[in-house]
Amino acid sequence: MRNVNEGQNGPKTALVEAFSSFGGDALRDVWLFDRNGHEVMYLRDDIEGKVSDVDVAKFVDNERYGYVTRDTYGDLYYADYEYTVRGFDEFELFRTFLSDGDAKLGTFASFDPTEGGYDYRALCETIRGVVADYPIEAFAPE
Q1: Residue 61: which pLDDT band, with cuts at 50, 70 and 90?
Q2: Which of 17, 77, 81, 106 has the most Cβ atoms closer than 10 angstroms to its Cβ?
């Protein structure tokens, strides 16, 4: 298991802990991204080998497209966008954005599927609580 901020306290550690508390051993990975870069915050050992075969930059670029989607939803719907979940044959991917301002920071994580599913709304609310405790810039990828 690779946890970038292991042994440290701070906003990124708190974010990883929120995902870990939510998913337990089913948590596969946690990433931060902005318009220009990305940072892996947590990567489970068995997933590290799988990710090494993936064009991570291209995958993150696809998640960045969510900025456009979020803006489109904001223009089309009467409710605010909160998160996206996509199901794959081996995992479920959750993505949300940490700010609405110019910072444009986002996070995504994947989880092993579980019978009965997950309460992603609860996860989103937990993440919002973590983000509220720190300046948004503290979550910028390195």
Answers
A1: confident
A2: 106
Q: At what angle do helices 66-76 and 56-64 cross, to 10 degrees?
A: 20
15 near 138, Cβ under 8 Å? no
- Phi and psi at 27, nearest 5°, equal -65, 130
Q: If you average pLDDT over residues 86-106, what whole number do you get?
A: 89
Domain residue ranges of the chain, discontinuous segments joined by +: 2-139
Residue 116 backbone class (left: φ over 0; alpha: ψ -120 to 50; beta: rest): left
Structure tokens at 124: 């989103």
Q: How far apart are CA 21 and CA 112, in angstroms?
A: 14
Packing angle, helices 120-132 and 11-23, rounded to 10: 160
The verdict on pTM exceeding 0.85 is yes
Given 3.90.45.10, 3.30.70.3270, 3.30.450.40, 3.30.450.190, which CATH number is that of 2-139? 3.30.450.190
